[in-house]
Give the backbone structure.
Amino acid sequence: MQKTARFFIVPGLGNSGPGHWQTYFEQQNPNFARIQQREWDAPDRAEWVSTIEQALAGEDLAHVVLIGHSLGCVTIAHWANTYGHRLKGALLVAPSDVETAHYAAFPTTGFGPMPLQRLPFPSKVVTSTTDPWVSEARARQFAEAWGSELVTIGDAGHINVASGHGNWPAGLALLQEWA
């Protein structure tokens, strides 16, 4: 008997609101759960990484898939580098580049420099050609460094509510191989 995958949503700065695709994913399936951070608007890397570790304690990691968005992707990469756990997989959507001047305007602590070590589990990086938080070239660099499959979806902004990605069935389809 095959064990069912468990999906853990890792939002970015500010959390993912009611119209965000991560929220739709969570509401559509009982095997999806959001990892809740104490502080969404002034995140601290050490705390966010520790929260992921605590949320996954007791889980059979061979059946866990992480679903990150923006700063959540960066947090997942830092978590992987800190703990080295092997998972079933990770979907890393619109990873924000914490080394840009654009990012400097936000009150975050310890997320830079960008983690560029290979992830110890299969992963997909989904990016857009028009994301204001990461250039296409940097997203490609992240995917290569992390050992991730790169999926470019064209002119899709930051792949969030503002860019029209609420209920995002194409994103859900990207998880099928791990379901």
Remarks:
- The longest strand covers residues 64-69.
